Amino acid sequence: MAQILAIDDDIEILHFIKTALEREGHQVTTATSTKEVTPAKANFAELILLDVMMPEEDGFTYLQRIRQMVDCPILFVTARTAESDLIHGLGIGADDYIQKPFSVGELRARVTAHLRRESREHRHVLHVGPLILDLTSQQILYQENPLALTKSEYAICAHLMEHAGQVFSKTQLYEAVFGYDRESDESVIVEHIKNIRAKLKKLGLEPIETVWGIGYRWQKENQST
């Protein structure tokens, strides 16, 4: 099972998270502020649950400070549901949101989905147009240089590239990437797609097509493994 770090200034929420996830066999370390979390503790975690609204240092600031040092999935646990907060959080490297209040079932499903995605083994390389999808190193390369994608952005691209030409709804993409299907989470996919497109556009690439009323597809080109 996984080493999970939960940071929230609400002690009752931390107790809820710790109890729910330890019953699944995970080891959960808790902290009521980011100042309690040493770099070593953050790096040891295989997944981080991070509150947004905390005194002294909020979750957004902390994420920006540690994202280049910590490679594991980071999920915001927050009551803030404004679209601007969602856009900002995903843009600075968050993988997902869990909105308060949440159930034990939702918490476990989200955590399990992200941990499962982290543990998948990949063994091949796929060439799609000018891009190379390296499923072993979990990178997408352009002219031999890896794209600066977050883990969730990579996972979305990988799924679309592996099924180039096929249309996926936002719900289907969320379920394929995160393993947890909930209609209200479609906005997460929308913001990740926006971020991916912005990064690819800087390279002169626009491979993700919007199929209005349905979803998205990666434009099909000659590909090989």
TrEMBL record:
Pfam families: Response_reg, Trans_reg_C. Signal peptide: none annotated. The keyword Magnesium does not apply. Coiled coil: none annotated. SMART domains: REC, Trans_reg_C. It comes from Candidatus Enterococcus moelleringii. InterPro entries: CheY-like_superfamily, OmpR/PhoB-type_DNA-bd, Sig_transdc_resp-reg_receiver, WalR-like, WH-like_DNA-bd_sf. Residues 3-115 form the Response regulatory domain. Gene3D superfamilies: 3.40.50.2300, 6.10.250.690, Winged helix-like DNA-binding domain superfamily/Winged helix DNA-binding domain. Keywords: DNA-binding, Phosphoprotein, Transcription, Transcription regulation, Two-component regulatory system. Residues 123-220 bind DNA. Residues 123-220 form the OmpR/PhoB-type domain. This is Response regulator transcription factor. SUPFAM superfamilies: CheY-like. The keyword 4Fe-4S does not apply. The modification 4-aspartylphosphate is found at residue 51. PROSITE patterns: OMPR_PHOB, RESPONSE_REGULATORY.
